[in-house]
Amino acid sequence: MISSIFGRTKPINYIIVLTFLFLFYWFIHFVVSDMEYTSEALVVRLTTLAMLLFSVFVVDFIIKRNKLTEANSFAMLFYAILIVAFPETLLDNDAILCSMFLLFASRRLISIRSLKNIKLKIFDATLWVMISSIFYDWAVLYLLLVFAAIYIYEPKNVRNWMVPFAAVFTVFMIGYGVLILAGNTNFLTEHYQLQFNFDTSYFLNLANSLKLVLYILLIFALSIYAFLKLGKAGLGKIVTMRLIALSFIIGLVVKILTKSADDYPIMITFFPAVIFVTNYVESIKKENIKELVLIASIALPILVRFVVLKVGYLK
């Protein structure tokens, strides 16, 4: 039943996923975390929720536009499932906003494979990466993804290598001008300290560390499977999948470097993760097995969350 619904692209799929995320967002905030909000804080949460729901459309658009998977809605479903598996990300506005802007950057980088307007796409991608770094300073590491795309698609054109520096300078000049008007010129030096903030309490928690390790091992295993499956496919798609794999690795590095008591940047790895998971599910030919995999994918995160709540953990 699940495969028959999400195995196609229907408007009802958007309604199901977005309604679920809407309800789950408020469940985490008002039931699990038991937070109280002022009217101003509620407006901020509503805006952040809107960005989260919009990110679902962006994920679906990137995947379908670049044909990273077959024509289905599995990616949306798995994106929602990963949020259920890591619900603490919904308490972190920075995670949601940083992830959304990195999606914009990924969209431009993946589209470079058409070899049209390369410099403009590099500029745009760098711009979005720098904006995402406003929320997590270590997100600047995604500039490595920009340079990787240049190296893969058109490395011989020297001007391509100069475009990211021009984009960074542009963001700096505009940002500094805004900070002067706001009377907060110290923001850049205070924000971009790039310190290694490691919260051992998070990883010493068995539930958190085990969940994270299983997630990483699963995605790495599915990525290897995807590359083996694409061995006979066109070179263009393999190159794109390499960028996606690199994006996942950079996201893990950013998570480790920025992990502190109130930061949950694991969400920035969800986009590459759902691509590998979706490619695996699509490779399952027997419908009954595919259905069991989908049921297990939905039931397991919910079951784990229920058990964790029972023993009194928040995250």
Overview of the molecule:
73% of the residues lie in helices and 0% in strands. It is an all-alpha fold and 315 residues long. Helix 2 runs parallel beside helix 4.
Short description:
It contains 14 helices and no strands. By secondary structure, the chain is mainly alpha-helical.
Write the layout of secondary structure elements.
Layout: H1 2-6, H2 11-32, H3 39-65, H4 74-85, H5 93-110, H6 118-132, H7 143-153, H8 158-182, H9 187-191, H10 200-204, H11 206-229, H12 235-258, H13 270-283, H14 287-310
Helix pairs in contact: 2-3, 2-4, 3-4, 3-5, 4-13, 4-14, 5-6, 6-8, 7-12, 11-13, 12-13
Question: Which features would summarize this protein structure in a list?
Answer:
315 residues, mainly alpha
Please state the overall shape, judged from the principal axes of the Cα atoms: globular
SSE series: HHHHHHHHHHHHHH
Report the strand count.
0
**Strand percent estimate:** under 5%
